[in-house]
Specification:
The protein has 359 residues and is of the alpha/beta class. It contains eleven helices and 15 strands.
Amino acid sequence: MEGPRHRVLLVDDQALIGKVIERFLASASDIVLEFRRDAVSALEAAASFRPTVILQDLVMPGVEGLDMVRKFRELPATANVPVVVLSSREEPEVKARLFAGGAADYLVKPPEQVELIARIQVHSEAYHRLMERNEAFAALEKSLADLQQEREKSERLLRAILPVSIADRLKEGVSTIAEAFSEVSVLFADLAGFTVFSRDADPRTIVELLDEVFSAFDHLAVELGVEKIKTIGDAYMAVAGVPEFRPDHADAIARMAIGMEEAFAKLARERDIPLGLRIGIHSGPVVAGVIGHQKFSYDLWGDTVNVASRLESHGVPGRIHISSSTRGLLGDHFQFEDRGEIELKGKGLTRTYFLVGPA
């Protein structure tokens, strides 16, 4: 059962005043009184009693009334509790200083019973309303902080799955994002032998391996300004020149591929795993855009994507298989091995190359 709503801390060095006020308040069932006769014990009691109103004598042994008011204002438990000062006479100048120092009211003692109870109830209710507003404000601040935290988390997730510029456009309210790019370089990579390897491997080992491999690839992508598009099983897709055009897209994707081969070869040696990395690269036009409403995905479409995928699947583990268009864009900055003509689905005989390394 909830206790009295109004909790009064009376501070007065005169026992008689304490008895008078205690008798006055006895008829009010919603008021409980705590009486202290010195400043030290009053301040100590304030923290545990949690008053909603303080009745304080103006003249206390060892401390001035105004200093006592200030002490209550400085104490966290009573910082906002109304302080009603009791004085033996009406002193306008003293009242003015007390109000300026933080007192809420002033009464000449002994006060009238009806007036005393009324003032206690009015000040206590005001204190309760203030505390309720403070609690509501604190709850609102927490809700806003939680909302901001969730918003930041959502933005981090959005930026983790989409290019930064695309995520920013979605945040600004752009509902449909679809663009054509005339010059990009697309890369597909796949772990050769992974199907057989995963058949006997522990699931945890498989996930840890893919996480380590793709994390290394992601690091390279960020370092070189290449955009990772997605992973599908043990396949990895990336593009240079999207969503912002860059004239060195072929150079960037070539360096990405070389770095991927080196990183994977090192990892395969360290883990002693019988896998190889096939990479295919083709350069040309694509259409790029965002699909989905609940789960967003930024993807590429077009013949360039198809050819890059087929170059990967027709490649050789440990080699970087590129098209003649990519070879032409790379010029003399890299070393190549002419593979001759091979049959690509939908393309017929097609001349391709292996990217060996920097020139």
